[in-house]
Structure formats: C-alpha cells, structure tokens
Q: What sequence folds into this?
C-alpha cells in the first residue's frame, strides 16, 4: 500500500493513547452552533472535531496529541475549554 | 516558613531537567514534576538537537546521549509544485566530537536528561499534572497544585517549563494575550526503512545523518517542511502557520501527504512503513511573543517562554530550552541563597539570558520568523527563484543563452514581486541574518 | 486481614523487527487492568496488603506504583526467564505466607493463559474462585459473582481464614484502581523494594509449538451432485456432535474430561 493511501485510522493506530474516562476538552455546543468558520475542524491534527448536519460540532478527546491547536485557532471566546488530561494519561510518544 | 522543597520545576523536558540538574547539584531540594508517564513522553519536535550547551553540565555528553545520527549533511530546499532547488552542505567535521547537530527521539533524549537530574538528586515525579499555582496573599508564587490526592507542593521558587501551552505562565499573567498568528503546528510521520536503504538514499554512512529544511511544499499554507534521518527511520513533517491553516480548509495530514508525494521527496521514503504520526504546536514568533520571564517566586523557561528559534535557516529549540533551564536553575540557586525569591531576587535569570546566545540570538533574529512566514517569502519568491534557475540551466538551442539579469527582471515581474518589496525584505533579511 | 496480591508486569509495544525477533519497550510496560482491579479489591478488603511480582528488573516500577496507592508490603522476585505458570505459582507461594486471601488478576497484559491463580491455589492448598466479575465483602466472607458460559452467572461465597486461605482472580471491570496521593508517590520513589531470586532458569517446560487442532479424518461425502456433497460436508445439522452429557463427582468428571481430551487428540500424554 502506498504511503499516501493510508486511512486516518491507520495513521492514528501507531500512537499510544492512555485514555482517561474524563474528557479534557470541553466544547460549548451553543457557541459552535453559531460558528461558520469551524477552524478546529480543519486544523486539529488528530481530526477530533467533526461537524454535524445540524450545524454543531461533535468532538472526541481520546486520540488527542495535546498540542493546543484547537483552542489557539478558535476565535470564539470560550467555545473550547482545554486542559491537560490527568497525569499519566493521554498521548505517549515513542519515536518523535 | 518550612516548605516541601527549595524549588519545584514543572515539566521534565530539556528546560526542566537542566534546571533541576543545576539546582540539585547545588544541593537544593528540587522536585521535577512531569505529567507524562516518563520524561519525554509528551514531546515531539522537528528532529535536530544542538547539544553543545551541555558541555558544561554533562562533559562528553556525546558518549552517552541517546543520539540516532550526527548531522553531517544539511540541505536547504526550495520547493514549487514541479521544481526543487537545493543547497546542500556536507562537513565531516560535524561527524566527530564535539559534533554539531544530531537527530534523536525526544522520548529517549528527554528521559536521558531527566535521568541526570535524578542522579544529581532531584525528585522526579511522573504521571502528575500540575493544575495551578499556589500563591501567597501578596501574589508571590509559593508552590503548585497537582492532580493527585493531597497534591499540593510548596517551595519558594517554581520554574515553569511546562511547554508551549504553559498554563502556568498564563495563570501568572505573564502572557499579555494569546494570538494564533504567533504559533505554528508541526506534524510529522516517522517512517521506517532499513538502515542500509537510508544510508544509500541519503548518501551517508555509519552514524552520519541528514537534515533537510524545506521552504514551500506546504500546499500554499505558510510554513515549511523537513526531512530528517534517524538510524532506521526517516522523519518527514510540515510546519504550518495556524492562522493560515485554519483559513485554508486543507487538513494537516493532507498537506503532509502532498509533501511526501513531491517528486523530490517521494523517492527518499519510498516503500517505508509509517511507525508513528505526531503533532505539536511551536511558539514560532520568538522574541516578539516572549512573555515576562519572571514574577515573584516564578520563572518561565523553554517553550513555555517561547524560546524556540524559528528563523528560516536556523531552526532550533531544544538548545534554547536547555540553556534557559540551566540559567533559571542558576538564578534560582542564587535567589535561594540570598533569601530573596521575589522577581528582584530572580533578576539573574534575565541577565544570564541577555548575556548569552539565548536572548542575543532571539533579539537579533526578532524579525526573522515573520519574514520567513510572510506571504511573499512563502508564495512569491520560491516560484521566482525556481523559475530563474530553471531558465538559467535550460538549454533551448538554437536560442542563445539569456542574460541572468534579464531573466531575473522578467521572472520578478511574472511572479508579481514589486522591486520595493524585494528591497525591503532583502534589507530585513540582511539585518537579521547578516 | 493480610491480603496478598499477585501482579504481572509485561513490557509494552511489541514489534517484530526484520530479523523476526520481538522488540519491546519497557517504558510502555505495565500491569493489566485485571491486576489493577485485584490490587484495588485487596486495598478495599485488607488491613494489610502485600504485593508480589515475579519478572524482569523493570517490573519494580509496578511495585513502586503499588506502594504509592497504599500497599503495606511488596516483594520483587527476579526472574529473567519465561517460566511456566506452575513455576510461577510455586515461587509466588513462598512469599504469600500468612495471607488469608490472595487476589490475582484474571488475565495479564500479554494475553497469558490466566492459569497462575489456579496453580497457586493448588500450591497453597487454598480454595479458589476464579474469573470473578464482582466481589463484595459480607462480614468476614466475600460474596463473589463468577462468569459462566452462555451469559450465566454463579454466586460464590468465599470464606477465607488463616488456616484455610482462598485465592480469587478478578476481571478488570471489578474495580478501578485508586489514584496514588502525592505523598504516597513521593515516598514510593525511594522505598526499599525487597528482592528475592525466583531461582527459575528454565523457560516454559516443554517445546513451544504453534497450536494446531488435531487432524480429523473425514470420510468422502456421499451424493451424486456436487451440491449434495458440499452440503454433506458443511451442513451443521448433519454433523455429529462429539459431546456427551455425564453426571459424575468432581474428581471423576475431571478424569473424564482429561480422557475425552486424549481421545479427541487435544492431549498427547
């Protein structure tokens, strides 16, 4: 299989995420419903933000690289609350 | 007042571990708190570290550091969709002690540095996230809250080496505001290939390695790319200006995939298997975005203080982190011994940074990051230069060879570059890099 | 009550390199969720909890973690080999003296057979309740729920005492291990970890071979049409079941099971 054709799931499957039961990303659905630019959907390298047909944003936190891109690109004050997951959880890099 | 420690260092990356090494060797009780399960587990970077600053802390560090390859070939590559212009430099001097640049995996390198802190007597606590600062009623920082039960820890000095997102520096009000324009996103793939294949494709042997920095090839998003060799993997990545990435509606991994498919890059990684995909944010704007570096009882170092140098031809960060951590450690020792841990007692930190490459390089190159990421440097100049070179070397007999000055003029016009802009950017570049 | 806990540390991120050997990374190692649950059960039941771990040097990290969450004693048993479950049980038993109850995880992170608890019970002469999905303390007894086939459950009452210890093994869902306090974590960093040598040098007894079901001789199917012959081979309703229902005492039943496995070719000795 050529390099470009790997699926996003395959891409992410090589990273280890120790998922905590509590989400460290919280999104304010009301603010997102009003958002037309959805920067987070484009920019999140882990593709955690998915627009819904109803105009909102569904988010995941499990495969988060904890990079901070989402809250930095989001220009809607307070739409994305973001902190680090509990110690010992989240992404664990190996060859980076 | 009795405290749990003399100093608390938050984050066991290169800045934190160097600070802890200095403090512990001076006989201070120092806690080094890391939120990952081991030091380096949250860290990712462009791929080259310049460890000479360690000469002081760990003599002959090259004999024990977990280095993958020593960079003996450095290429700067300019990419358009169909063209590539490479300036390639090789020096065997960089392949022998004391070396120059090296590739290393951060989970290895950072863990190695943290081991030195532990060996010096620092108390490394992993899997523990610092959630906030403890402050005296007068505002001075006196410790940290962690996310462990009964997790408060006190010390007269806290050194925040908590990375680019530094919630501690923000909580202390050291960052005026956070502007996405000052940050870039780095994504990379670690691709495995047999060592012999890498040696052959990159024309190196043994532990020699290659560092390729790329301007262009980022699908029109302001930024750049890189290719680095490790022993049996190749790292390929792109660095993307956050504000432009968000506006463009092309996802980071798609931009990376496009770079990997470029005719100048694809043969280097052909047949390789992806081992890891990773991402991290970079404080790209350097000096222009730096926070206040000290407050009462608090110092900020490394990426947390935006000490990453992203100045086009120079892309460094780990060395600035190690140096700033080391100087923060020295200033902390001074403050503890003088009994003044307020900002005035910690003034030695900034002084040290100003007297060394840390702030001197940053000050000198303060305009470079914005220049390198500007629309002209990103979108107009590469095409102009590539076309110029292409025409110089295209032999289209029976036409005679054209004069270079005339091609330059024609290509400048074709690219839509104003002479005044070219002169201004040239001057900015000359002032920064000259 | 002194409760013993047995945990197994395994290295993480196994990869097969080009030469075919398996590479692992100790930094990604750890114990299974089941072992974590076992420790939590022990901490919630016992006044004193002793954690024993057999394995490579890196496994000491798991014992420090155990101390950090509140284990009162730990024992590391160094063993570089890949011992058999029986050898592990024999070695563990030497360090579990005085424990009224021993809690194990039902499975290890490296997909082991989960048989150590049974061997351990045999070694200690203890009663056993294995593969539990719930453990509740009722006075001095434990009321446990065990998973059976077909979605059925069995409630088992365990009454451990000093002269009649019990071994239980739990699934990972039984309890979530508490988070270690900061003070506990700091103390565990420098705690002395008693170390013994397992004295096991032998890897798994016997030859390790790939598992293959025993060959069955199938008579050529009857039928003139191909479809009839295929049906004869594949139609489950036509297949003869080898099962039989017997009612026997436990020891006789065990004998019968072993005999059947020999007849069917699953056991060769």
A:
């Amino acid at each position: 299989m050529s390099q470009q054709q790997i699926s996003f799931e395959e891409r992410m499957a090589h990273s280890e995420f120790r998922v905590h039961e509590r989400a460290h990303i919280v999104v304010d659905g009301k603010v997102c419903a009003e958002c037309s630019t959805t920067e987070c959907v484009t920019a999140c390298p882990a593709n955690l933000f998915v627009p819904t047909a109803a105009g909102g944003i569904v988010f995941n936190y499990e495969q988060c690289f904890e990079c901070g891109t989402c809250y930095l690109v989001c220009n809607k004050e307070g739409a994305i609350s973001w902190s680090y997951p509990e110690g010992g959880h989240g992404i664990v890099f190996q060859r980076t | 007042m009795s405290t749990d420690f003399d100093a608390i260092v938050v984050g066991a990356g290169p800045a934190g571990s160097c600070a802890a090494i200095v403090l512990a060797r001076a006989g201070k009780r120092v806690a080094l708190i890391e939120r990952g399960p081991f030091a380096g587990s949250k860290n990712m970077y462009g791929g080259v570290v310049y460890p000479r600053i360690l000469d002081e802390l760990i003599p002959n560090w090259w004999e024990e550091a977990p280095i993958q390859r020593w960079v003996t070939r450095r290429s700067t590559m300019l990419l358009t969709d169909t063209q590539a212009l490479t300036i390639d430099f090789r020096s065997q001097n960089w392949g022998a002690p004391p070396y120059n640049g090296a590739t290393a995996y951060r989970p290895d390198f950072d863990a190695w540095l943290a081991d030195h802190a532990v060996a010096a007597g620092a108390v490394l606590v992993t899997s523990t996230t610092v959630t906030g600062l403890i402050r005296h009623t007068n505002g001075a920082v006196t410790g940290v809250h962690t996310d462990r039960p009964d997790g408060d820890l006190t010390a007269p000095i806290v050194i925040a080496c908590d990375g680019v997102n530094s919630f501690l520096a923000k909580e202390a009000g050291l960052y005026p505001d956070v502007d996405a324009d000052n940050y870039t996103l780095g994504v990379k793939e670690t691709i495995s290939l047999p060592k012999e294949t890498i040696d052959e494709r990159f024309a190196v042997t043994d532990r020699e390695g290659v560092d390729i920095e790329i301007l262009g090839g980022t699908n029109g998003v302001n930024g750049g790319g890189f290719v680095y060799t490790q022993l049996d993997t190749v790292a390929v990545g792109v660095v993307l200006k956050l504000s432009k990435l968000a506006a463009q509606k092309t996802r980071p991994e798609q931009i990376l995939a496009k770079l990997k498919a470029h005719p100048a890059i694809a043969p280097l990684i052909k047949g390789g298997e992806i081992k890891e995909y990773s991402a991290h944010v970079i404080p790209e704007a350097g000096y222009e975005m730096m926070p206040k570096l000290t407050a009462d009882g608090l110092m900020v170092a490394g990426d947390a203080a935006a000490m990453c140098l992203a100045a086009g031809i120079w892309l460094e960060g780990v060395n600035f982190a190690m140096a700033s951590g080391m100087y923060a450690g020295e200033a902390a020792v001074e403050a503890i011994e003088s009994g003044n841990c307020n900002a005035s007692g910690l003034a030695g930190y900034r002084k040290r940074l100003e007297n060394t490459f840390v702030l001197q390089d940053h000050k000198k190159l303060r305009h470079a990051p914005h220049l390198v990421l500007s629309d002209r440097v990103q979108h107009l100049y590469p095409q102009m230069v590539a076309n110029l070179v292409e025409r110089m070397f295209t032999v289209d007999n029976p036409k005679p060879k054209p004069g270079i000055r005339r091609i330059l003029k024609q290509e400048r016009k074709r690219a839509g570059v104003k002479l005044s802009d070219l002169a201004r950017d040239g001057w900015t570049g000359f002032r920064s890099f000259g | 009550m002194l409760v013993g806990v047995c945990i197994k540390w395994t290295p993480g991120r196994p990869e097969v390199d080009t030469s075919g050997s398996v590479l692992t990374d100790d930094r990604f190692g750890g114990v299974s969720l089941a072992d974590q649950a076992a420790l939590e059960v022990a901490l919630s039941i016992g006044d004193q909890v002793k954690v024993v771990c057999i394995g490579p040097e890196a496994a000491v990290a798991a014992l420090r973690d155990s101390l950090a969450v509140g284990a009162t004693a730990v024992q590391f048993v160094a063993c570089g080999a890949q011992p058999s479950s029986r050898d592990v049980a024999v070695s563990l038993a030497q360090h579990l003296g005085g424990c009224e109850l021993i809690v194990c995880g039902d499975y290890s992170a490296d997909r082991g057979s989960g048989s150590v608890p049974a061997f351990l019970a045999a070694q200690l002469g203890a009663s056993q309740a294995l593969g539990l999905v719930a453990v509740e303390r009722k006075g001095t007894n434990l009321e446990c729920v065990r998973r059976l086939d077909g979605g059925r459950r069995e409630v088992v009452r365990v009454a451990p005492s000093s002269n009649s210890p019990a071994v239980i093994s739990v699934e990972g869902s039984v309890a979530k291990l508490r988070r270690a306090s900061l003070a506990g974590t700091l103390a565990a960093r420098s705690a002395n970890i008693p170390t013994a040598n397992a004295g096991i040098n032998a890897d798994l007894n016997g030859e390790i071979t790939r598992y293959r079901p025993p060959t069955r001789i199938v008579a050529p199917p009857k039928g003139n049409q191909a479809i009839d012959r295929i049906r004869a081979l594949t139609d489950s309703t036509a297949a003869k079941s080898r099962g039989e229902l017997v009612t026997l005492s436990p020891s006789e039943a065990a004998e019968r099971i072993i005999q059947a496995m020999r007849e069917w070719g699953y056991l060769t000795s």
About this structure: The first helix of chain B runs from residue 14 to 25.
